Amino acid sequence: MGIIKIKDLIYEYAKHDEEGNVESTIRAVDQVSLDIKKGEFIAVLGHNGSGKSTMAKHINAILTPTEGTVWVAGKDTAKEENIWDIRQNAGMVFQNPDNQIIGTIVEEDVGFGPENMGIPTEDIWKRVDNALRAVGMIAYRKHSPNKLSGGQKQRVAIAGVVAMKPQCIVLDEPTAMLDPMGRKEVIATVRELNEKENVTVILITHYMEEVIYADKVIVMDNGKVVMQGFPKEIFSNVEKLKSYRLDVPQVTELAYELKKEGLPLTDGILTIDELVDELCQLRLKI
Ligand code: ADP
Ligand code: MG
Questions:
Q1: pTM
Q2: Ligand 1 pocket residue status of 28, Cβ below 6 Å
């Protein structure tokens, strides 16, 4: 069993009428099964309303299944007695950094999680130190979070999760409110945590450029997982992605159009370097 295992997950939101009776239900996640291994970097794509956030909230037991089962580090999220362990093992980072920062000084904010866990003070400082280093924010430890840029705030929020030493981090559109610079900072931080600290990463995003380094990409539509594979496999299916109202990276689209015009390029080109290489090879052949 992987670090996260989701089996036949169904989640339905109840809609209530004025008297509080359940009027109808909306099926937000529909029969999803996933097995995520320790250290994997998983990207989740999908149009608005496809069920990404609802699925993600099951990974740290904010929601529990209507049907099916979710296990984190082998523990069933539906069991009350497991919640503490699960929350510690699977940290969450949300879209808006302002809603996640509570401390008035960066280091205080980052120490909040471990403090809540009852970690001895001396160890808290070590953890805060390491976490701030890991996200490249150690120089700001005494600063007020208010004065930081969006990208910096989001890195502090990530440090707050890292300080709890979780095995997985789930990031639900962490870059949606950031400028391009902030987006780059956050993605670089997440990649480094994954590569150096072997933290399992589940990154939900709208930005195609952010998923090309993932080990695996999952596409959701209408509550279901509709595509699953290596980034290259996923982006080879330009038409299919478009049918799920998703874009492809600009360079992938360009390569796809050139191929349609008759250039013998491979499918699923993801970076400018790859495209340039292939075009140069073609020139040599002519
Ligand atoms: P995504 O994160 O992919 O945009 P969500 O998981 O937020 O998708 O939403 C999936 C579906 O569930 C949508 O139809 C949405 O309207 C519905 N939904 C989400 N949150 C709630 C809620 N709190 N109450 C009722 N319906 C909800
Ligand atoms: Mg969402």
A1: 0.93
A2: yes
